[in-house]
């Protein structure tokens, strides 16, 4: 896992098209704001895991008894 430390106002760039912004916040935990092209899917890890599981189930259905 890559861990990056950033301060308020800094940006993390991923490739040419994705940027994660570290905004000023008084909430804990802090927040990260991102921007990416419309064709790039962005999900929280737990949501992405469910999508992968559903795709796996759809591509490998259980046999009928």
TrEMBL record:
<dbReference type="Pfam" id="PF02599">
    <property type="entry name" value="CsrA"/>
</dbReference>
<keyword id="KW-0010">Activator</keyword>
<dbReference type="InterPro" id="IPR003751">
    <property type="entry name" value="CsrA"/>
</dbReference>
<dbReference type="GO" id="GO:0006109">
    <property type="term" value="P:regulation of carbohydrate metabolic process"/>
</dbReference>
<dbReference type="GO" id="GO:0006402">
    <property type="term" value="P:mRNA catabolic process"/>
</dbReference>
<dbReference type="GO" id="GO:0003723">
    <property type="term" value="F:RNA binding"/>
</dbReference>
<dbReference type="InterPro" id="IPR036107">
    <property type="entry name" value="CsrA_sf"/>
</dbReference>
<protein>
    <submittedName>
        <fullName>Carbon storage regulator</fullName>
    </submittedName>
</protein>
């Amino acid at each position: 896992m890559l861990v990056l430390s950033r301060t308020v106002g800094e940006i993390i760039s991923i490739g040419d098209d994705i940027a994660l912004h570290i905004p000023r916040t008084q909430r804990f935990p802090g927040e990260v704001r991102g921007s990416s092209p419309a064709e790039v899917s962005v999900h929280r890890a737990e949501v992405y895991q469910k999508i992968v599981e559903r795709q796996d189930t759809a591509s490998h259905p259980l046999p009928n008894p």
